[in-house]
Amino acid sequence: MQGFTAEVMIKALERLDQLLVERRLADLTLIIGGGCAMILAHGFTLGTSDIDAIPRGLTVSELDPMIKEISREQKLSSDWLNPYFSTFAHTLPEDYGQRLVEVFKGAKLKALALGKEEMLIMKCFAHRQKDVPHAKTLIIGGADVKKVEAHIEMLQKKKIPGASHALDFLDDIQDQL
Question: Which residues of 107-122 are buried (b: 16+ CB within 10 A; e: fewer)?
Fold first, then answer.
């Protein structure tokens, strides 16, 4: 399996677009988070092994045969495109769509990446050790920490599970910078 560079990601998205056209399927929009969003939308150089995306227009099960086909063709992991970050999508601000960044547009496929603040919110809620360098990179790269902190505090007041841990994670990251 090859590393997941920006070039590899774009090549996989191009092939997915081609398959959507060939199979005369509905238009597809991917809302991308994770390392892929950081690389394609925000120009960060870091490692990632997949594209975390929520599909709009087709279901994951409808996409699965094409994901597997591209996986075989391009020697990618079988879950190179997955919806895993959707677990934390409920933590996003209602207006997150206003800050989406277009990272790919084909005939049938459009890929939109989360903004820096939304990425930082997601990293805080995941609060894994592997998210520490990504969170630091987002802050150094200009994510509005005050906006992120205010949003997480609002979620905490609404008793959204994990908000306290997310806020602690953000505080720890800021202390380390």
Answer: ebbbbbbbbbbbbbbb
CB 118 within 8 A of CB 138: no
3 state DSSP class of 30:
strand
* DSSP conformation letters of 32-56: EEHHHHHHHTT------SSEEEEEE
Residue ranges of domains in the chain: 6-114, 118-176
Distances (CA, A) of 94 to 13, 17, 98, 99, 111: 27, 28, 9, 11, 19
Tell me, yes or no, if the pTM score tops 0.85. Answer: yes
Q: Do 138 and 120 form a contact (C-beta atoms < 8 A)?
A: yes
- The predicted-structure confidence for 45-74, as pLDDT tens digits, reads as follows 777 888 999 999 999 899 999 999 999 999
Burial 53-80 (b: 16+ CB within 10 A, else e): bbbebbeeeebeebbeebbeeeebeeeb
